[in-house]
Write a structure and sequence with these properties.
Layout: H1 2-20, H2 22-28, E1 45-49, H3 54-65, E2 69-74, H4 77-91, E3 96-100, H5 106-117, E4 125-128, H6 146-168, E5 173-178, H7 201-222, E6 228-234, H8 241-246, H9 248-253, H10 261-273, E7 284-286, E8 289-291, H11 307-317
Parallel strand pairs: 1-2, 1-4, 2-3, 4-5, 5-6, 6-7
Antiparallel strand pairs: 7-8
Helix pairs in contact: 1-2, 3-4, 3-10, 5-6, 6-7
The structure holds NADP nicotinamide-adenine-dinucleotide phosphate.
Organism: Rhynchospora breviuscula
InterPro entries: NAD(P)-bd_dom_sf, SDR_fam, SDR_member_12
Protein name: Dehydrogenase/reductase SDR family member 12
Amino acid sequence: MFLQKAWRTAAFGVYGFTQFTKSGFIEHSKKFKEEDMQIQMEGKNCIVTGANSGIGYATAEGFASRGATVYMVCRNKERGEAAQSQIQSNTGNPNIHLEICDLSSVKDIRTFVSQFSSNDKPLHVLVNNAGILENNRVITPEGLELSFAVNVAGTYTMTELLVPLLEKASPDAHVITVSSGGMYTSPLTKDLQFSESNFDGSQQYARNKRLQVALTEKWAENYNNKGIGFYSMHPGWAETPGVAKSLPGFSEKLQGKLRTKEEGADTVIWLALQPKEKLVSGSFYFDRAEAPKHLLFSGTARSHSNIDSIIKDIRSVCGFSS
Ligand SMILES: NC(=O)c1ccc[n+]([C@@H]2O[C@H](COP(=O)([O-])OP(=O)(O)OC[C@H]3O[C@@H](n4cnc5c(N)ncnc54)[C@H](OP(=O)(O)O)[C@@H]3O)[C@@H](O)[C@H]2O)c1
């Protein structure tokens, strides 16, 4: 067990330093096709969570520059408005809307979705981007560990509640969840709120991101006939406010080697633009290609068989009927 964990960390480090940095992006981009990104998005409604900063901002701007109607879901009005007007002025697209919602609150998400759904418009793209790596154990007013609340409960609740609007955009709906290569270091675990051992923020982040990958697999299976494609992805290691705040040592060590936020958003935008026939629903993507969900000899694959009982627990925590 200890050896396997050490192996996972070492393998992740080597994979990361060679592939997830800027040089990895430059190398992989030699295979990118320019025409893949030359697709317009007029008439498409897109939600991007955590759109005021980093990869979410670059994603929202990428959609806006292609003519999409973009709904930026942000928790802070001032930061949201600043990003909204920046995107409007950079792209000339007036159809950029700001929705205030704290994604660590299931109640807030339910209110947001209920209001958003009242117009009954189809939702073509949902990007579950908002995410955090919180180094301390913080409990939300709803009693959830904060990282779990945002990364898992928030992502799950948002996606499940928006399925009816996504169905309206069928067969053209895409749900893209911004996971992380950090998930390679963890199997799927049932201890959702990290209450069975001393809290470790990086480990909890890896567990959450692993769970996003497993949830995506399950959504693809459950909603197979609804005309919605579900994809998880890794953006690579990009220089963003989130990384600078949560991982200052990492950020400093890799100064000049990290990707830009636009490079981090590249595969999110690519996934949203590609016809579903070109993609595999339930898969994990990195640099515009399907990527493995498990590193060799890492012992994480079997853990995905626990997903059904884990979903049962998430549903209970998030107030869904079983
Ligand atoms: N950057 C990387 O190297 C990297 C690598 C792997 C995966 N990722 C993933 O990429 C995604 C974006 O991260 P980033 O690096 O771009 O970081 P970032 O700049 O910190 O962006 C995160 C966004 O999520 C929002 N957010 C956090 N908690 C929220 C909440 N409770 N309610 C609503 N919004 C909330 C933040 O809002 P505030 O501005 O208000 O805090 C911000 O807009 C995350 O899911 C992250 O795990 C990033």
